[in-house]
Structure prediction request, 424 residues.
Amino acid sequence: MQEYQVETKCVQSGYTPGNGEPRFAPIVQSTTFKYDDGEQVGKLFNLESDGYFYSRLANPTVDVVEKKINDLEGGVGAICCSSGMAAIMLAIMNIVHSGEHIIATNAIYGGSFNLLNVTLRKLGIDTTFVPTDISEEELRKVVQDNTRLIYSETLTNPGLEVIDIEMFARVAHDNHIPLCVDNTFATPVHCRPIEYGADLVVHSTSKYMDGHAVAMGGCVVDSGNFDWTSGKFPEFTEPDESYHGVIYTKQFGRQAYITKARVQVMRDTGMIMSPNTAFLLNLGLDTLALRMERHSSNALKVARYLQNNSKVEKVFFPELEGDKYYNMAQKYMPKGSCGVVSFIVKGGRESAMKFMAELKLAMICVHVADARTCILHPASSTHRQMSDEQLMAAGIEGGQIRLSVGIENVEDIIADLEQGFAAI
Ligand SMILES: *Cc1c(COP(=O)(O)O)cnc(C)c1O
Prediction:
């Protein structure tokens, strides 16, 4: 049978009911599972047979969602976590250790930046930050002997910058290190990073994948393409003493990374997704392709409207002709990008506040990427502690507004923005 298209996978992947079984994957709200004899349990612990035994390691409802996301991204296995940050932490902890080094782009999500810049440094893991548009030559220069990972986002939150995935993958692979990308904003509907050479893909499923702003979650997907046997990752090729001497590459082949992530790191850290969350996420994923199509087309119309508005100084959206990342977006996400548009109103902070106070439909929320249009003024919220000078240094202007365009009728969204502009 031919492989299904992304729209079909969103609704069909992950679960096929047997005769007389529920059509939609039910919530298996149980921490543990019963077996008839101890031998069987022993085999499960030895990883010799498949089956559920404790929901910190695997649960049937979570399993359905993992299979669906894995299918959407085109990997060999996935693991769902309690949040996007947990997924990023798991992805890194599985391969990078104290005394080792990461290269990351600097315009990534603030939480990820802090994890790398503060928390992981305290654990002895050093990160060098580079610009999203770094040249291949410059990127090669920052690779060190102890570098174990290159990390970036396909479409950065909130700057909407697009990395050259193929170039980053080339530099990573020439140095026998993997490339991990956060694909939260583009989603596999608009970009499948593994097809361009990414080895690992992480997600905050709390955004478009859930899509309704109801369930925190994250996911790590393993492409199965990376060769862990170069000598830089001995934990895959030497016996794991914490797991009765298993050698991951030998026993699990292309699934070495994702198996180790589950049986070792997830076992020891417990950052698992709950069955209830998985149920809600699965429901959200059913409509992901439909919603992304609408988010993206609405956002492009809103971006064009803003671009032609005399009260707007600048618009950031990679599908706009003339945007710095237009060509990169056309290459890696030709069908569309996402619903987030960032823009600067003339008149700085004061105008931005007046503008936002008039909006009715676009509500003020510290969230992005769900069905309902929402808006945020970074300078007075997420970056509130900073002075105007510090904001400038961080690339955030007083008049800057981040708009997460929802799936409502775009004429209603634009009419709402009209009210805001009338006040300034
Ligand atoms: C929100 C977000 C995260 C963090 O995810 P949580 O689910 O909030 O923990 C990571 N990366 C990106 C790009 C995000 O937008």
